[in-house]
Amino acid sequence: MKAVLVAQSGGPSMVINQSLAGVVLAARADKRVGPILGALHGIDGILGERFIDLRKVTPATLENVAATPSSALGSVRRKPTADDCARIFEVLRRRGVKWFFYIGGNDSAETASIISEHARAAGEDIVCFHVPKTIDNDLRESDHTPGYGSAARFVACAFMGDDLDNRALGGVKIDVVMGRHAGFLTAASALARVAPGDGPHLIYLPERPFSPTRFVKDVKDVVKREGRCVIAVSEGIADAKGNLIASRFIHEVDSHGNAQLSGSGALGDALANLVKEKTGIRRVRADTFGYLQRSFPGVASATDQDEARAAGAAAFAAAVSGKHAGGSIAIRRKGTRRYAVSYDVVPLAAVAKETRSMPDEFIADNGHDVTQAFIDYARPLVGQLPVKALLPGII
Amino acid sequence: MKAVLVAQSGGPSMVINQSLAGVVLAARADKRVGPILGALHGIDGILGERFIDLRKVTPATLENVAATPSSALGSVRRKPTADDCARIFEVLRRRGVKWFFYIGGNDSAETASIISEHARAAGEDIVCFHVPKTIDNDLRESDHTPGYGSAARFVACAFMGDDLDNRALGGVKIDVVMGRHAGFLTAASALARVAPGDGPHLIYLPERPFSPTRFVKDVKDVVKREGRCVIAVSEGIADAKGNLIASRFIHEVDSHGNAQLSGSGALGDALANLVKEKTGIRRVRADTFGYLQRSFPGVASATDQDEARAAGAAAFAAAVSGKHAGGSIAIRRKGTRRYAVSYDVVPLAAVAKETRSMPDEFIADNGHDVTQAFIDYARPLVGQLPVKALLPGII
């Protein structure tokens, strides 16, 4: 009986442990499976042979872990070298691992792809599956990704509350949202709108070039019209040449070559200072939502939770089917009348490394808003939001 | 039949509309009351005669508004002058207002106190009541204040998620929490701890002098012990001379003379840079929770919601009783075995302007943590937190 090995990688999400539970519960129910190992901190845990016996975890604990945000096995941001792969195969062989699951985003898919290709070249008997996860929603092949719906729900709730706050005290409020290359998460701020005049009034996405001059003009226009302005800005906004605006203030890159954008309020503060200087408006504030977007407990989308678990189970089923040397799971939307999805097997190379952006039909022509098509797309992923009611006659 | 006038002032909270509903529902049920007016944006709305007829709001809408965060009548930060008071009395007389309710923190209590004193001096027939509200929990006379439990619940949830995030990816994480002079909200981060090793590992409050040198040493010690470090820092931390650390990076004051601390990530970023420079640790991040702490929908504490409403109702009952020329409501804890409170009338002057800090018995001797006494104090105010479970054997 061969072993299952599962690990998590990249930025955590609120539902990444649902995918872990999906793999583990499916593996436990399959008589072909022997040991079920969890590697701590992704491939670091394989290389260092730091494993947890996931057969020993009680069903109750597993359910509680599934409901807990952030990667329960720990995470890592590391791209394996050829030497790493050789060492990984040595460990997997010794542990009798045949089925390897790596839960993460496009960098994690790249890791799985590298391991899978090296395994094939080396003639290793390993089936390597990537289980999708990213709050950025930027994996290719998928309609959307596990983790997005919950992070989007956090962002929508945050803007709902913050727009009410801004209604009460006025001025200009800038909120910086995660999303390195794709604006999906920033776009979810639009779901907060319920009543006429509700913010966010401006939404800046990485998919459209950001001009500070245009930005200041947009803010002035909204303040003139609404008497206040709430703004959603992606941390990944870039100028017409593709240079990150944030990189003017922040300097740090990870081992995949990604600029470190989160965990700093510099972009928001710089934009707030710009608005103060150029408009003379006194009350200008900026918040950067930061890591709460991917880890806040208790706000996960029920649909996202279900799909994250189903994606894990689908990866297991595909891996043990004997039909695939490796692959990833893509969530596709079925039909148009009622929300429904399928979990399809796609090649690792198709989701590795490269990402996707917001399609043009989701972005308003003015370049600082989303379309109804986006709202219709995102609403079922995020689920019902909390009550938001204004007193009659309040502007 | 005399009129009731109600308004909201200062920073919004998640339950400030529960207090509004408490006043309005009690007033509606009382046959001595004629019109029930809501002034928009606090005393600005009285001076500008911008009123809403709160009798016309349906019970269903009022309940939805009560459940909605942030001041539904709008807010203001303004201290009335003698001229303002004269103009206010002119408006109140013309509108037949006898009972005036001002929902807010200590600055709002000061406003209510100024109006009350001027009314008495001018022989106006006005009963002026302050309804307590502040996420800072720093009103004198009260065991705790409406708004605190919900903001504390947000902070506890945020640290629960962020500590899990830090467990997954390691390094040092600094989270800056609201609280100008009092550390109650920052202290609530400690409620996030469930398992041994859980963060926050360090908690810095305004009640103890902050030394950057000592801070760096504390962080190094925790990283040595835990391999990582999660830190709660109050925006109001100050050096031994009482100078705000944040004021080295932020320069802005409001009309009550308070330094503007929120709506900027500067303090967190500065502390993160300090840790990076002095320790050589590469992964150091800072988030500033900002306005989400007081406005995020869907995370309010049920106890806080109930008490905020009861405080509004208690203010109304006291105002119409004929026993008081004015006053404020203080929440006091009754008994010790089981959590229960009373709503007592206290003089406006007792809660106006001055604030209270964390008592010494809530602060650990090492100066960077809270005591079990604080946990016991805060737990019933915050209520049950979401599930947090770790896999067995995870460090």
Structure description:
- The structure is a homodimer of 395-residue chains.
- Chain A has 395 residues and is of the alpha/beta class.
- The first copy, chain A, is elongated, with a radius of gyration of 22 Å.
- Chain A is 38% helix and 17% strand.
- The longest helix of chain A has 22 residues, at 148-169.
- Chains A and B meet through helix 3, helix 6, helix 9, strand 9 and helix 10 of A and helix 3, helix 6, helix 9, strand 9 and helix 10 of B.
Topology, please?
The structure is a homodimer of 395-residue chains.
Chain A: E1 2-8, H1 16-28, E2 33-39, H2 43-47, E3 51-53, H3 59-67, H4 82-95, E4 97-104, H5 106-122, E5 127-132, H6 148-169, E6 171-177, H7 184-187, E7 202-204, H8 212-226, E8 228-234, H9 266-279, E9 284-288, H10 292-295, H11 302-320, E10 326-333, E11 341-346, H12 348-351, H13 372-382
Parallel strand pairs in A: 1-2, 1-4, 4-5, 5-10, 6-8, 6-9, 7-8
Antiparallel strand pairs in A: 2-3, 10-11
